[in-house]
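To the team - protoporphyrin IX containing FE complex, inputs and output below.
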Amino acid sequence: MLAGDINFRGRSTRHRLMSVTAIATPQELLVGTTGVTRGMRWLFQANLVAQIGIVVTGGLVRLTGSGLGCPTWPECVDGSLTPTSAQDESSWHKAIEFGNRLLTFVLAALAIAAIVTAIVWWRRRRAAGRYYPRSLLAFAAVPLIGTIVQALLGGVTVLTGLSPYAVAAHFLVSMAIIAGCVVLVVQSALVQPRGATHQEPPVRLPRVIRLLAIALLISSAIVVFLGVIVTGSGPHSGDAGVESRFPIDPRTISWLHADSVWLFLGLIAGILVALYLVPVPLTLRKRAWLLAGVSVGQGAVGYIQYFTGVPWPPVALHMLGACLVWAITVWLLLGVMRVPSYTNGSIATAKKSNAR
Ligand code: HEM
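Output:
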């Protein structure tokens, strides 16, 4: 069946099924190209990069003790949206906190561009009776919804005097947004490669690999969650004057966090071995190796910051590393769960006989 043979104007059962699918399945994607342009993909990637970037810049606010450089929200200081010279806070802290707030507008602009572009794309495809995975539209809304939630949560964080619970929630919501952006980027990239001559049914990887990828995601989430608790119980509250912490011994929770990392690394080793025992797309092995490399580096930074009394440069690097580890884990899982296969070799194919 050729791309475009099927009318997706909302009348067929297939279309109705597609509309309830959270993520386009390989079958859907094999129906034809999704018509996503290079510009759209770039925009989605820019959203992912920006959402990771704001975690690091937000971290710098906390690590330089600038969290209350603007003591109120949404105004910076009572009666002014921007910092004023009459404020008690140092100009350095005011600039960092206010600069981070301004970045929200960059994020919002990228997020609005992503959803508007996706809506235009969707309307065009629908009008032309062409295939469109509706879930792509849903995921294109993630950056905007996430940015609005984070702007409000940022306000709560300031208004609660940098409560560690609000700071932790702020970080975890960012992780959810990053996961949504990864799905968006992956989904917009998964199209039938140009020149593919024959479509094969999608390959299902062995169950053990799929289970390992799910276990990796869960353990990555645990590592990140425990990391956030470590931060919340440690010295980096966001402002030198704020003593509010989780009532947990930072040393004990740090070791628990590190132990969960060892489990995570073990699972990475397991999936790497599994990916070499069966023929799988080369790209999956590359993703697993990337995850292994970044995770080992992240672990090393973790130990360095722990033994050196959490100075801010490695802590900031550790925040970036956490975003990358999480994003790559999601990326690997998505690759393992849906492997399209084309006979022209543009995507290395796994043999069906091995896919049970
Ligand atoms: C895959 C490896 C790792 C990941 C994904 C990870 C992730 C995280 C995350 C998400 C945070 C919280 C960041 C924040 O809320 O600002 C954190 C904090 C922390 N992690 Fe890790 N971590 C890893 C390895 C390690 C290791 C091996 C150690 C060694 C003990 C470690 C020590 C710490 C410490 C001390 C903090 C608190 C830093 C602070 O005071 O802000 N991490 N980690």
